[in-house]
Amino acid sequence: MKKKLLLLMCFVLSGIMLFGCSGSAGTDNEEEDSTKNSNEEGLKLHYSLKELEEGDNVTDLSGNGYDGTLYNRQNMNNEYEKNATFMTEGAYIEIPGEVFENEDTLTISVWLKNYSGAINTSAMYFGTKDNMPVNYWILNPSNLAGTLKSVFTDSDNATAPYNTEVGISPSVAANGIQGPYTDMTWNHYVTVITPTEISVYMNGDNVGTVEHTKTVSDFGEELVAYIGRSSYSADATYTGFVRDVKVYNTALTGDSIKAEYENNKPDEIKNNATETDILIADRADPHVTKGSDGYYYFTASYPMYGGRDVEGYDRIILRRAKTIEGLADAEEKVIWDESESATAHRFIWAPEIHEINGKWYVYFAASGQANNVWDINCHVIACEGDNPYEDNWIDKGKFQTTEDDLFSFTGFSLDMTYFACNDKHYVIWAQKPNLSNVYMATINPDEPWKLTSEPIMLTAPEYYWEKVSIPVNEGPAVMVHEGRVYVAYSASATGPEYCIGLLYADEKADLMDKASWTKVKEPLLTSSDLIGEYGPGHNSFVKDENGDWVFVYHSRSEECYKGQCGYGSEDPLYDPCRSARIRRVKWDENGMPILNQ
Q1: Same domain, 443 and 307
Q2: Between the CA atoms of 341, 347, 350 and 353, what dihedral angle is there, to the nearest 10 degrees?
Q3: Is 244 a catalytic residue?
Q4: What global pTM score does this model have?
Q5: Can you tell me the distance from the alpha carbon of 418 to that of 428, in angstroms, rounded to the nearest whole number?
Q6: Are strands 359-367 and 593-594 parallel, antiparallel or unpaired?
Q7: With contact defined as beta carbons under 8 Å apart, do 532 and 562 qualify?
Q8: How far apart, in whole angstroms, are the C-alpha atoms of residue 215 and residue 104?
Q9: d(Cα 4, Cα 183) in Å, to the nearest integer?
Q10: Among 474, 533, 558, 575, which one carries the catalytic annotation?
Q11: In degrees, to the nearest 5, what angle opens at C-alpha 341 toward C-alphas 427 and 553?
Q12: How far apart are CA 418 and CA 480, in angstroms?
């Protein structure tokens, strides 16, 4: 697993992989491909899938004439990796069904970088065309459990065909074996189907072999075949990169499959992927600030330890120390809990402590109804004295809006942060009208529980890495550095797909003008930048004792991702395994922050 984690999500430009990678993700010369393919025994179809456009014929490089057709390309964002096609929002490729008809022995090889998340989807499929297909083979790189699925129907069941699946991660577990957990880097998937067995390989290694009795000939005539969807009408289409699809009417050997992987994988794994120690375990949404008293203060979401825990997400905790590292062993106090409010109930999430005009406040999200996780909005408590660690806190209630603002803090809002710039004071938060977007408004520092303007929307999910499983922008964090205001935010669902994006503006600009802000098109920190941890996000920025910027963020350890933490069967909401970690901010030659080193 650690070796797999080192693989880079790298984007190829002019033959050179960015972010410390080099190597080839495919062959640039299609004529060379075609010549090479003609010598591959049993090769029936080969699509290289280079940067296709809507309506393109997908050329079969095997020379057998099984060209495919790409549909719904207009919905795609022109986000390419060299020699690959990105598919999203309903895009798929139709393959002539006769490629598979009556071929009882097949080898199907495909390279995928999956951005669908853990979901019922199909990266590749052949079978009957019913909306509930009776007979099929289907490849899902990450099923609902996050594991590889490659299955073959072994009997007929028109009402529940999924119960007839055999292979890797079938719907009925007894009908096969569980596949490995998969990540969002390039992975090579190979399925070998014979009249009696289905064998699956991932990155050159055999996952397993399962017996079956049905054959492809038994599927009948007029089969359909796709890349990016199946016949199941209820399943989502695939989101992610795909390249170099090959279909053989022979059973490739394990040695041949290993050679295919070794010859086409990136030559160099990520150089700057590093391990990061846990600062404080089981503390998600970490926030650290340095007060005028010289102390560093830490707060975070207090977790639930499983869905039956009646005490989690019910309090605000605080630590303090003279150094950031000292927070790890500092005494943790409860400074406030839900019993002290008539308006703020569980679930209490993402508290942030801020010193504003010499007084201390905590912004946090809480439910307006007891035990209702969907009535979440932004709230404030204020410290009555000068010592936030020792003095009493009072409830200021739900964050207040201007008279004409009928939008802010309605429905579902959370993750509020604060910053000051050029004697103006701002809050930023996430809110759902439909998607989870990030908004900003001004406040009066003397009453920092009230907006003084209507909000602007800073960012909404638009890029593929912001929309894995769920379209989300949330968790804003601000850093003002050398003439710029940087707003980091977290994107996608909270599994391994969780990552950190960035906006920035000139600090002298009108920050309440959306046009002042630039959004970076690629994420700054992803799971692929890390070893032994997944889903980095919801960070805060603070300067260390030397005046250098660091950021504190949360992620899940590898054990949790692999279901070995004891909470793998729980809803992620009730999984306590997100822990606070710390990394240093680096800077490139253009003054942009680097988080992945």
Answers
A1: yes
A2: 10
A3: no
A4: 0.85
A5: 6
A6: unpaired
A7: no
A8: 6
A9: 8
A10: 474
A11: 45
A12: 12
| Tens digits of residue pLDDT in 312-363 | 999 999 999 999 999 999 999 999 999 999 899 999 999 999 999 999 999 9
Which CATH number fits the domain that encloses residue 581?
Answer: 2.115.10.20
Question: Could you give the CA distance from residue 278 to residue 583 in angstroms, rounded to a whole number?
Answer: 10
Question: How many angstroms separate the CA atoms of 210 and 157, rounded?
Answer: 20
DSSP codes joined into one string, 363-395 = EEEEESSTT-TT-EEEEEEEESSS-TTTS-EEE
Measured CA to CA in angstroms, residue 85 lies from 8, 248, 524 at distances of: 18, 22, 22
Give me the pLDDT at residue 12, please. Answer: 29
Please identify which of the residues 285, 314, 558, 575 carries the catalytic annotation. Answer: 285
Is residue 285 part of the annotated active site? The answer reads: yes
CB count in 10 Å sphere of residue 498:
30
Closest CA to 421 of 404, 443, 397: 443
CB atoms within 10 A of CB 281: 14
147 and 296, same domain (yes or no): no
| Lookup: tokens for 570 | 């729980």
Question: Do 114 and 238 sit in the same domain of this protein?
Answer: yes
Question: What is the spatial distance between Cα 415 and Cα 500, in angstroms, rounded to a whole number?
Answer: 14
Whether residue 375 sits in one domain with residue 230: no
Determine contact, residues 251/107, Cβ cutoff 8 Å.
Answer: yes
CA triple 111-47-120, angle to 5 deg = 50
Average pLDDT over residues 15-19: 29
Closest residue by Cα to residue 451 from 435, 474, 434, 428: 428
Number of domains in the chain: 2
Question: What residue numbers bound the domain in which 126 lies?
Answer: 27-264
Domain end (from 200, 229, 264): 264
135's tokens: 């007979």
CATH number where 176 lies = 2.60.120.200
